[in-house]
Amino acid sequence: MGKVMVIGCGGVASVAIHKICQNSEVFSELCIASRTVSKCDALKEKLQGTTKTKITTAQVDADNVEELTALIKKEQPEVVLNLALPYQDLTIMDACLAAGVHYIDTANYEPEDTAKFEYKWQWAYREKYEKAGLTALLGSGFDPGVTSVFSAYALKYYFDEINYIDILDCNAGDHGYPFATNFNPEINIREVSAKGSYWEDGHWVETEPMEIKRVYNFPEIGEKDMYLLHHEEIESLALNIPGIKRIRFFMTFGESYLTHLRCLEDVGMTSIEPIMYEGKEIVPLQFLKAVLPDPSSLGPRTKGKTNIGCIFIGKKDGQEKKLYIYNTCDHQECYKEVGSQAVAYTTGVPAMIGAMMVMTGTWKKPGVYNMEEFDPDPFMDALNKWGLPWKISEDPELVD
Ligand code: NDP
């Protein structure tokens, strides 16, 4: 049917690329473009005998709009799937506009020198995308992404009004290392060491990092400690879910992870302020990333499951109603299928599905959109088909 260009070739991209290659009817051609072209070539080598999708590779610096625009114009994909880092979102959006192609990503823009993520920078492109007749689909991972689609689905079929959403992200996988992160360590540590926040009665309530802790009994996993974090889908759901009173996001962390993190913070290793070291400027967090295990190496070692989903409380026909929609995913099963652990899998699969929605015209309208702004049905069907089946509980345990 058409050509997709994937930018980035790390943990999430590797899963999305495997899934693109399983879906050759939609993705007849694929260009993998990233900073280190040898990684793209290695993946091409691994996959090209197993798929009908025609694969090419390219080296690109996604911080450089001109270089990127020239590459997109040369390759002529219908859609660009940005699986580089959140720092590159705006340059890739600019290049897509200049080259006239649709844009999809999984994480919202974050300036490299400030650990703060908000949609305002990307929402500022709405008019430009509308005028160009192009679609930009923001946040097509699991959270944000699937959690946003779950919200649209709950609203469409189960509620007249949703008042409370708790998004729960549980990773009960064990990789055997005392400390490692499941996706890009720099992005992950910036996220968890930032202040927490949630949306209540029309405004943000800020908390200290890890200040709010709850214990939750996750289906298929059991009891885990979870902590309230700021998370990007709260910002768009607060606008797009009418009648909403509160949205919170919780993520599970084990005691060992938190103790190591506290210690690294205390000695300054998580700082993003550059320092001079032996005459060279380095960023402590980037140095830490270099010494931590590469998330893509965790696949063979990680055992256990993830459970990510949303608890909704609202009203249907005047009655109070609660609902839990979630997916569980097994690290070892993911590794068997695509050679990656479940955190990359649960992000890479929806990234492929988002690209498919736009490529097939199922989700396509000029402008910049978050996932909950489209009809959830085709995406929910695709989750079942492509490896992330979801379940519904109408009597879930609630978070107090
Ligand atoms: P990785 O660090 O594993 O991969 C990032 C890739 O981007 C690497 O291949 C890297 O190249 C490439 N890259 C970085 N900078 C540039 C550049 N300037 N030009 C070209 N390529 C570049 O990250 P992950 O795969 O773990 O994460 C990818 C994205 O997914 C991130 O934005 C992350 O925030 C998001 N994410 C979203 C989730 C969700 O549920 N919504 C969950 C988890 C992650 P090189 O190989 O040279 O380092």
Describe the structure.
The structure is a single chain. The protein is of the alpha/beta class. Helix content is 36%, strand content 28%. It has 14 helices and 18 strands. It has helices at residues 11-22, 37-47, 65-75, 89-99, 120-123, 126-132, 146-157, 185-193, 232-240, 255-266, 284-291, 331-338, 342-359, 377-386, and strands spanning 2-7, 27-34, 54-59, 79-82, 102-105, 135-138, 161-171, 196-200, 203-207, 213-218, 222-228, 246-252, 275-277, 280-282, 305-316, 319-330, 367-370, 391-393. The strands form three sheets. Strands 7, 8, 9, 10, 11, 12, 15, 16 and 18 form a nine-stranded mixed β-sheet that branches. Strand 8 (196-200) and strand 9 form a beta hairpin. It starts with a strand and ends in a 7-residue tail after the last strand. The mean pLDDT is 96.
Question: Which descriptors would you attach to this protein?
Answer:
single chain; 400 residues; alpha/beta; 9-stranded mixed β-sheet; 7-stranded parallel β-sheet; 14 helices; globular; binds NADPH dihydro-nicotinamide-adenine-dinucleotide phosphate
Rg over alpha carbons? 20 Å
Helix content range: 25-40%
Overall SS class: alpha/beta
- Uncertain stretches: none
Major sheet = 9 strands, mixed
Q: How many DSSP E strands?
A: 18
Proportion of β residues? 25-35%
The ligands bound in this entry are: NADPH dihydro-nicotinamide-adenine-dinucleotide phosphate
**What sort of overall outline do the alpha carbons produce when their principal axes are compared?**
globular
How far apart, in Å, are the first and last alpha carbons? 48 Å
Helical stretch tally: 14
Average residue pLDDT: 96
